[in-house]
Write a structure and sequence with these properties.
Blueprint: E1 34-36, E2 46-56, E3 63-73, E4 77-79, H1 81-89, H2 98-113, E5 117-124, E6 135-139, H3 144-155
Antiparallel strand pairs: 1-4, 2-3, 3-5, 5-6
Active site: 57, 64
Pfam families: QueF
Pathway: tRNA modification; tRNA-queuosine biosynthesis
C-alpha cells in the first residue's frame, strides 16, 4: 500500500483547495491540470459524470444543456477533477454544435494526459423536439486500446435508454 501524496507530487495542481477560484465562461483549455498516476502499470477506468454542462448554439445563441460522461484509462497523467469542472464551465459562452463540443473536450484531454483510452458522451436535452447524444472515443494507436475503441464505438449504443425528455 502506498502512502499519501507529498506536496512535491502535487506541485502542478493549483486549483484544488484554492479559495480564490475564478470561474471562466469562455472556452479555455489552459484551465486543465494533471497529476501523476500512482498506478501507471494498472489499467483501470476513471469516470466523470457532469450533469450541468452548458454551451451555446453557434447559430441561434440559445443555451444547450447536457450531461457529459467522460471515461478514460490513464497512463502516466490524470486530470484533476476541479480543473476539469472549471474547464467544462468554460464552455458556458462557447458557441459550437454538440458534436464539436464532445470532440473538442476529448482532444483537449488527450493532449493533457495521453491516456490509454478515452470516451466522451454528451446527452443533450431536447430543443425543438429532438435530443442529440454525440459519442466519441479514442485508443492509443498500435495498442489493444485502439481495437477497444473501435469495438466500443461500434457497440456503444446497442441498448439505448428510453428518452423521456431527460
Amino acid at each position: 500500500m502506498s502512502a499519501g501524496r507529498s506536496n512535491e507530487d502535487l506541485k502542478e495542481i493549483t486549483l484544488l483547495g484554492n479559495q480564490g477560484t475564478k470561474y471562466i465562461f469562455n472556452y479555455d483549455p489552459t484551465l486543465l491540470e494533471a497529476f501523476d498516476n500512482k498506478h501507471p502499470d494498472r489499467a483501470y477506468f476513471v469516470k466523470f459524470n457532469f450533469p450541468e454542462f452548458t454551451s451555446l448554439c453557434p447559430v441561434t445563441g440559445q443555451p444547450d444543456f447536457a450531461t457529459l460522461y467522460i471515461s478514460y484509462i490513464p497512463t502516466i497523467k490524470m486530470v484533476e477533477s476541479k480543473s476539469l469542472k472549471l474547464y467544462l464551465f468554460s464552455f458556458r459562452n462557447h458557441g459550437d454544435f454538440h458534436e464539436d463540443c464532445v470532440n473538442i473536450i476529448m482532444n483537449d484531454l488527450i493532449d493533457l494526459m495521453n491516456p490509454r483510452y478515452i470516451e466522451v458522451w454528451g446527452k443533450f436535452t431536447p430543443r425543438g423536439g429532438i435530443s442529440i447524444d454525440p459519442y466519441c472515443n479514442w485508443g492509443q494507436p498500435g495498442t489493444k486500446y485502439e481495437a477497444m475503441a473501435e469495438h466500443r464505438l461500434m457497440n456503444h449504443d446497442l441498448y439505448p435508454e428510453k428518452i423521456d425528455n431527460r
